[in-house]
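[Meeting: bench + compute handoff]

Bench side (C.D.) handed over the final construct sequence. Compute side (W.E.) agreed to return the predicted structure before the next meeting so the bench team could plan truncations. Sequence as handed over:
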Amino acid sequence: MRSSGSIGAAIPMWWSAFLLLATLLSTASTVHAKDEPTIKFKKLKGFPNNPNYFPGSNVVLFQEAESPRTVWRSTDGGASWDQAEGIDHDKSIALIMHKYDPDRAYVLTLGNVHWKTADKGKTWEKFHTDAATSDFAESFGNWMAFHADDPNKIIFTGMECEGFFCEERTMYTTDGFETKAKSLRRQTQGCWWAKSSPIFSTGDSDLDATRVICIVRAGLFSPQYENRLYISDNYFKTLDDGETLDEKEANLNGDGPVPGLVSLVEVKKFLLAATSSPKSAEMALFVTDDTKTWHRAVFPQDHALLEAAYTVLESTNYSIQIDVRSGKRTSRPMGTLLTSNSNGTYFTRNIEHTNRNRQAYVDFEKVTGIQGVFLVNQVDNWEDVEKKGDEEKGAEKKIKTLITFDDGRTFEAIKTGEDNIHLHSITEPKNTGPVFSSPAPGLVMGNGNRGKHLEDYWDSGLFISDDAGKTWIEGPNSPHKYEFGDQGSILLAIKDSKEIDVQEIKYSLDHGKTWKTTKLPDDLGSILPWTLTTIQDSTSLKFLLTAQTGSKESPSFCMISIDFEGLHEDTCKESDMEKWYARKDDDGTPSCVMGHTQKYMRRKKDAKCFIKKEFKGPVPETSKCDCTDGDFECDFNFVRDGDECKQAGPILASKKDCQTDDPEETFKGSSGWRLIPGNECKRTNDDQKDKQKEWKCSDAKSRPSNSSGEISVTYTPFKGDFDRFEKHYLERSELSNFDDETIIARPEKIFGGAGDIFITRDHGKTWHTPKELEDKDIFAIVTHTYAKEMAFFLTTGKDVYYTTDRGKSIDSFEAQGPLDRQSVLSPLSFHPNQPEWLIWHSQKCTSDGCHLDASLSTDRGDHWHTLKRYVERCEFTGSKAYNFRKKSQILCSAREHESDDADDNPLQLLYMDDFSSYEFTPALSHITRFATMAEFIVVATENTTEGTLSALASLDGERYANAHFPPNFQVPLQNAYTVLDSSTHAVNLFVATEVEKSRRHGSILKSNSNGTSYVMSISGVNADDGWYVDFEKMLGLEGVVLVNTVANQDSDSEPKNLQTRISHNDGALWSFLPPPQKDAEGKPYSCSSREGDAFCALHIHGYTERADRGKSYSSESAVGLMFGIGNVGPILGNAKDADTFMTQDAGLSWKEVKKGSWTWSFGDQGSIVVLAQRNTKTKSVSYSLDRGETWQDKEFHDSEVFITDITTVRSGSSRNFMLWGQNGKELFTINLDFSGLTDRPCVHDKEDPDKSDYELWSPEHPLQPNGCLFGHRNRYLRKKKDRTCYNEQNLQQLVDSSETCECTRQDYECDYNYELDNHNYCTLVEGLKPADPEQVCRDDPDAIEYHERTGLRRIPLTTCKGGTFDPDNVFKSYPCPGHEEEFDKKHSTSGIAIFFAVVIPIALAALVGWWFYNNWQGKFGQIRLGEQSSLDNDSPWIKYPVVVVSAVVAVVSALPLLASSVWRTASSAFTKLSGRGDSGGRYSWIRSSGPRRFTTRDSFARGRGDYAIVDEDEGELLGDDSDDEIEGNR
């Protein structure tokens, strides 16, 4: 089986298993003929899965593909079969062979009970894993990871479910499952032994034995870019605190960890970790050869690494080979083959335009056993293929086959005589295992044709080479399946066919010169061959053929054994063998391949014997050669041009070189050549081609730095009579090695008309119009929602232009139809993880009217398939972040009937999980609209009878639960919902309560963890006439929210009076903004308040008044910083009179920084803040380098102009800013480059905080002085205000979130049917009763317990533990009916605990008594030095009572625990006697066939958040403590 795979495309390494077939039972007809092979067969009723040989033996296992999925075993290479004994075959789902032990195999079930064998399947034993076998897509086929040195060490990937939610749970064993598997870690996305390859080592034998690496998810709903890579050397056991795991995060980039782990793969002596970043398809690859030191893999400048667009190929012990997709056409992809240096970090090109398919398989294969020789298929007409995506209009690939004998330095055609031949390869798999070769020395076969290019597979014939691909001969006509046996002495072939019409096999005993034919047994009949295979080392005389028989209408299957034992009685002698060299010159002299000659002993092709050395493969002999020019290839960032390697990118300089900006400074660097990795040639005394040469430091930099000490200004005018700019940033990912800063801009008029499209890749210093977009009628520009480097240019017709590389190149596709020009929604919908997947909404008009049709493309517009007609909207709702719904899920709102007539034709909500059928299933009817936010899907339905709207929520997109609003909260039909930002695992739903224009406002309701039960967060929140809401979250921080509320909700005559409120705990509690004491000029305000109140507070103009909806108060990179324009007073004033305010501490305190209204932008991750005055003429900006402490002005123009906006990249990492403005009738842009102010990168010194340029900052809740927020303290890295340096790398801002806080009142919010009163108590709504707590049990048959209602519920985001409010301490729980035993198990105390609870107090009491007995020196009370006690410590009435009283107190204290435990034990025993209880093993993930509820989960963002109910008995205590504190602080 091949060992290639693609971690970029998540392709299983067992890629060919889907077309393997093999197997079965007893014997049948046998043909005995001395001159023919022996053929035995067994017909089967079911489809067989792939056969698996135990290495070094003729023992074979296979499993039936269909129920009962029987596992069969053969001990004679497939001639006879028996059922494996000791297995419940109907429960088996997978057969797994041990990767490193030739005697072991495993049969897995869907549950937690499985079977194992340690004697090649002769006997089987049960083993337990506790967790059920995972069914997540990422885990499928990768359930077990084996230790390369110790076969007893195995990692098992399972999963555990709580109600509706399931998460991966990884188990492990160190004794080969002799005992029950132990828990390794939860919330994983794959775990591996560091010693996962025989040739990989950490360099420490102790670490090799125990080190484990896991990709860990941040939480149940966490996106992929939050995944982390953790390492543990003691199986992730907990430390002394009982909570913290003994693990460390891998230091991937040398300066710290890197988030976004996608996958980990072992490649010979390397481990490769692939990472992604938010809203980008670009990835990074990190390489290690010891798990201690990691390096980022560096690719040539023009080859970005994209997700699902690279394939890790079969590599060598000395280098990694990767094929990166480089073509534009995703429907007909091509790639570039790259090879690394010896440590896997720097990659150079081998060959361009390799042939790939859409599944990321690459036509690439090494010739087994011959170093440096491999075959590739190359697309010859690549330029024509690139031009069009539609195969009917564009060019088909013209493919040619090439071979290299120097590991990719040079390539040549393969020939038979004078004719070129071309072979079908990996992208067209027709058999199992390697396509061309085997361990048989020098023997290569393939299906192909003569001519200029590769033709159709069914027109091909068989070609054979016995000199490792140097020369070829033609074999049998038509395509064949083929195999090698007896080290190449036997070549076996069987004709491939589309029909059940094959009746013979062919074989050659002379390397393919002549072929003999043997008919299949008459009683077998004709067959359709499926797979042909033999043992892994190709030393056997036996082969296995799986095939289909019968008819297509009534098929059956068979396993055919072909045995060549007996054709030759003789075993080869030394005279029958020859020396064969892997490469010879024309005169027959052995020549060098990869710096050495390579020699094998193999059978002469005309010898009449068999080698018969089963399971002993040939071993090569090597001899080193002197180095020549042919042993060198072009180095990193150099490309081949004839006999030279020419520079194509920056020269790599060491860290100690080029420390100044002197352009004349030099360093020693690459000559442009390097020794081919793995080449073993001997160095001579002469200068070699890779001898270093001298370079200027300017050659090592992709862009010269600006170290002028000044802010540079670049002014660009735009011609034409325009009013404003449309502008879009296309940003690099955080992992990108490129340095472009790309903006798309287009001048336009307010009332129609737009100019040309301009693109800048240097942040506005230079602009150009792409030739592909010249004179095109571009109607709109749409940027990809989830891939920030992609943008689409929509025309009024069907043509759509796009860029996937931030404007570097422009391509196009033709949509299914024109867009709806009247719609405010984009015609495109995007998938979160598959940037190539698009949904297009096209307008179709008939005589009855116009409607929308939705179409799907999975190749970025090259091909389209109609999804649904008469739709309102279709969206991708599948995502890798959500394991509880299918990754390919699509939701559509569409008319029930394909008609424009709305009568009796309601809108339906439909879902589709599988593209293969394109069939939708209705989920809801009479909907008005649906929306997605984070993990939630929220739908509004219309009750036409009662004239109301209802909201429903779903997590899986299939089942919807009604949203339970607070009591008496009816929604009139004409009202609206707005789903607000819900990034904290709860839906924030705005529900309109006032619909009159200019008076609109409503309430924000907050949901529980599944979006179904809502409580009031805050009422009277302002909305505009378009139902935009004054709701703003602080970016980069959890749970900090600002809203504007209407203070005069009852007034019908006066304008709305708005007040700003802020919450620091995700809307559970709200407060006013504390006003500054003085304004920017040092003057006091007309009112004052220390904390802000209804009479005096700071009020900020909100989202509804924002001209640019994309503008925000804050930036994710400038953590804790926020700007706003507003005023101090009782209400929000007129925007024209507003001043500019900022906060540095997430809204706890504010200050006025500028008089008037200014616009702002954050740069260098908050280290630079730039302000520009709005609505007035100016010629300067104001900037701060110390987070707003001081401000300086920079003049950007010689005359005053209007500035409409100031922008920078959304990540806030750039030191470039753009001013957008108008000078008379002329629009202009101005680039402000702050990079000249300093060229010193900031340094984070963890050991010496005083020397460090950074400080740690923690956000706080105003009512929690201990610095806790949501149950934990987060620490963020910020540059110190007084340091003159810049952030060279993206800061890993969240430095430490491991400190868990005790639970307080601020970690709770009001429960359903409860609301905050005027004193911030959660009180029951008048006339209502608490919700029935036992409803939890009725909704979920698997629920074990329920909690009493108390009026409070835990905030979803909190991770607090312990303290007065800890759920485990104060929540009273009760068992669900039928789950009493499980409840007792969960809450009972173990015998060991009882022992310690009783014995230890008694022992301590005895010790205390003993101490008093021996040390009693005084009376009770204070002790005075020198004072003689008046009590005799030996007095019996003192001595013995002390001992007795101490002991009695200890025993009495322990008795309640003892009695309770004894009662539980007795109850548990009675339960078992009565027949209830677990049998100890499960065979199914689904333990109940009843309906499943949307339940809470065991982990949120940090793994411990959950909703819980506060015990009613403790309600007064909780309310009194917390609410008194709140009231006292007001």
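W.E. noted at the follow-up: The first helix runs from residue 205 to 210. C.D. will use this when planning the next construct.
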